[in-house]
Amino acid sequence: MAGINLIKHAPGAPGLRFLGLGPGLMPIRGMLKLKLLLDKHAFWADGRTNAQLRILLSQSTVVVSLWRGKRMVGFGRATSDKVFRAVLWDVVVAGDLQGRGLGRKVIEALLNAPAIRNVERVYLMTSQSAEFYQQLGFENANSQKLLLKKQLSN
Ligand SMILES: CC(C)(COP(=O)(O)OP(=O)(O)OC[C@H]1O[C@@H](n2cnc3c(N)ncnc32)[C@H](O)[C@@H]1OP(=O)(O)O)[C@@H](O)C(=O)NCCC(=O)NCCS
After folding, report:
1. Tens digit of pLDDT for each residue in 124-151?
2. Is the CB of 37 within 6 Å of ligand 1?
3. pLDDT single digits (tens) 94-123
4. Domains of the chain, first to last
5. Ligand 1 centroid vs 102 CA: distance in angstroms?
6. Which DSSP state fits 20?
7. DSSP helix/strand/coil, 85
8. Using a 6 Å cutoff on CB, does residue 137 contact ligand 1?
9. Angstrom distance (rounded) from CA 140 to CA 154
10. Residue 78 near ligand 1, beta carbon < 6 Å
11. Whole-prediction pTM value?
12. What is the widest separation between alpha-carbon atoms in the chain?
């Protein structure tokens, strides 16, 4: 899609975290833009505070964002041990721009990142978008069970 910039952030996304950098390394309140995107379009990540988002970024091995002008319109991140296991988290495209290939771009950028490319297995959890990921080479993990321990109030 024309007019979209994809940013592959440094590990932990320090430019976004500390300076709010967007396309062209311009300071455009990137943390606010990230919060707006997640609050509006990522139902599982609604209401995360700036402080929490800063920690989340700092602990992410790979971070990718998509921009249309000064608006963040897509995001995805991954944690990885760089050899055996990586997990994708918080993949989202703004609702009005879904279905135009942007989600695919986010996933491809994450999977092609050096910290992800060479790991044995890449995992992800999704409640509503399994078919999207199946198109991109992910399979149902029928041999494994997802276990969950709920902590704090969430
Ligand atoms: C899931 C999401 C990231 C996909 O991004 P997107 O930009 O809409 O997807 P794309 O346009 O890149 O789609 C790529 C392909 O997947 C298909 N696809 C997209 N969403 C799909 C879905 N929910 N079910 C089935 N196929 C889907 C598209 O038709 C397209 O196929 P094509 O290349 O043959 O045309 C986006 O819709 C989104 O943010 N949804 C809400 C948040 C969410 O649920 N995120 C996942 C949580 S883990």
Report:
1. 999 999 999 999 999 999 999 999 999 9
2. no
3. 999 999 999 999 999 999 999 999 999 999
4. 5-134 (3.40.630.30)
5. 8
6. -
7. strand
8. no
9. 26
10. no
11. 0.95
12. 46
Q: Which residues contact 81 (CB under 8 A, 6 or more apart)?
A: 119
Task: Please name the residue whose Cα sits nearest to atom 42 of ligand 1.
Answer: 92
Does any ligand 1 atom lie closer than 6 A to the CB of residue 110?
no
CA of 152 to the centre of ligand 1 (A): 31
Amino acid of residue 12: G
Q: How many CA atoms lie within 13 A of 42 on its CB side?
A: 22
* Ligand 1 pocket check for 76: Cβ under 6 Å: no
pLDDT over 70 (residue 77): yes
Output the residue whose Cα is nearest ligand 1's atom 10. Answer: 101
Residue written as tokens 């707006």?
36
Which of 119, 126, 125 minimizes the C-alpha distance to 80? 119
